[in-house]
Amino acid sequence: MKFLSRLTSHKPALVGFIVICLLLLIAFFAGPITRLLGIDPYSMEILARFSPPDHAHILGTDESGRDFLARIIYGAKVSLGVAVLSAAASVFIGVLIGSLAGYYGKWADSLLMRLTDMLLALPLLPVMILLAALDFSKIPGLRIVVGDQDTGVAKLVFILVIFSWMTVARLVRGQILKLKELEFVSAARSLGMSDARIIIRHILPSVVPTVTVAVTLTLGQQILFESALSFLGLGIQPPLASWGNMLNNAIETLRVAPMLVFIPGFLILVTVVSFNFLGDGLEYALDPKSNQTDN
Amino acid sequence: MLMGLMPGDPLDIACNANPKCDPKNVVEMKKALGLDRPSHERFFIWAKDALQGDLGFSRTYRKPVTEIIGERLVNTFILGSLAAIISVFIAIPLGIYAGTRPRSKADYGINFLCFLGVSSPSFWLALMLIYVFAVWLQILPAGGVSSIQASAYGFGPMIVDRIVHLILPVTALSALTIAQWLRHTRSSMMDVMSQDYMRTARAKGLSWSQAIKTHGVKNALLPVVTVVALGFSIVFSGAVITETVFSYQGIGKLMYDSILANDYNVAMCAFVISCTAVLMANFVADILYGVLDPRIKLK
């Protein structure tokens, strides 16, 4: 309860949390909402390109005459979905690698941490662009990732995950290095518990706060990367809409219908700011050292 | 090696574009150019040639790669270093200002702007800048490196023309680095302000601003130096997007274009150069930290 009251006393975090909940609701009920409004994100009316907002199309239409509001709503579903999926997977990998490296130390530690450092040192976006340009179906083991209909979702999540587990792994490792020297771990070991049980039942719960903050910040990061790749035409493929690929033809659209460029980008900005605010608030609420006078 | 796994094959594309092309010749050509071998073998052939200074031939530009890369590198270097210098001169003073006055109105304002800077998608920021300054106000060019006729008017106007073309890309590129460096400077400064030696400095009679100048800033900037050196990574990552949006002819746009055009040699070279630059920057950051902070010894 103390945690909750501290979190709600952090105004930006509260606002961020509400905005994220709203967006998640919209994304989750994208189908019902658009049906209720009688709009469809995929039907094209080629004669009604760039039509201004009117009764039928509340925000007007895009360059193929598709309803813009419907595409925004479906875009929320794809953008947030990709971010949540890839953040979840990268946290799982990060915790796994971090705890293995931290708990076993020695060669496992140096091997895994060198791998982490290596990935951290790379310029992420160029590497991601390169990977996104590959044809995964040419690599035998990765054909499953792509699946039959190549809309780019699975591939994009896969690429985002490869390059985003490092922060979590480092945080978890650092915490475990400290924790494993404490008495309760040696007590658990002297009781004959297996390593896996010690890590999962006794050590990982104390890591949860650190990881929670990292997850929130990772989520924001993933949305930015997804939108950048989709903007370059290497992420989510049309006709599927994402906030990034709606800006795909933005340079041409800019002169005709600037609102079509402004809205998706602004939504990305709002979402990422919300995640960052929430992360900031969580960090403050979970840190026993930060005092009540803050904020 | 990864390049070979991209969709399509350069010769197949060339063949599809030309109906007179005989499939029998294609097979022969592939054998002559070594394209029938598995990708790992081709990678080693490429690496051997590259180490000897032969970076290959560009398929789309019809020039050796070394000729294309040079000019592009200079363009990116100008863009990147300008963005970095401007970022340092904006981020560090503001960061110190905010960090020495935590929880003041100015601090909240600066902090909020930083959050916006960190969270805004860089390509969208660039697009908005184009809209405001090029489409709406029409005072700055929307993209490119220079105007076509610029070099005809002599050296002075040419430089002015280059600078005018740089304003928007540099602004877009530095927004993120300013925000990140400012946040680091601010938190580092706040950290230093609560240290014992700051209280000692005040106790021995230094004024508030003197204590900050002589003891605070130096200590606060130590970690910032590393962040700034690591910022090269951001500049190179961001350059791909910024250069693409502004069609600024730099190495990032070259890489993106050549990946889309299946131009392996160019893409590979641009990519290797970007990675090397970033890795070098990381290395320099490590060394700088050791030099600046006598407490850290390089083994």
Describe the fold and architecture.
The complex is a heterodimer of chains A (295) and B (299). Chain A is mainly alpha-helical and 295 residues long. Chain A has one domain (9-30, 61-289): MetI-like fold (Orthogonal Bundle), CATH 1.10.3720. Helix content of chain A is 70%, strand content 0%. Chain A has 13 helices and no strands. The radius of gyration of chain A is 22 Å and the shape is elongated. The two termini of chain A are 19 Å apart. Chain B has 299 residues and is mainly alpha-helical. Helices cover 74% and strands 0% of the residues of chain B. Chain B has helices at 10-17, 23-33, 39-51, 65-100, 105-119, 122-136, 155-193, 196-203, 208-245, 251-260, 264-292. Chain B is globular and about 70 Å long. Mean pLDDT of chain B is 75; it is low at 1-19.
> Unreliable runs of chain B, pLDDT <50, ≥5 residues?
1-19
Distance N to C terminus of chain A: 19 Å
- CATH superfamily membership of chain A, which one? MetI-like
Instruction: Tell me the CATH topology of chain A.
Output: MetI-like fold
Write down the overall geometry of chain A. elongated
What's the alpha carbon Rg of chain A, rounded to whole Å? 22 Å
Give me the count of strands of chain A: 0
Oligomer: heterodimer
Helix content of chain B: over 70%
Beta percentage of chain B is under 5%
**Greatest chain-chain interface?**
A-B, 44 and 41 residues
Biggest pleated-sheet summary of chain B: none
Unreliable spans of chain A are none
Mean pLDDT of chain A: 80
- H-E order of chain A: HHHHHHHHHHHHH
Strand and helix order of chain B: HHHHHHHHHHH
Could you tell me how far the N terminus lies from the C terminus of chain B, measured between alpha carbons in angstroms? 35 Å
Number of helices in the DSSP assignment of chain A:
13
- The value of Rg of chain B in angstroms is 25 Å
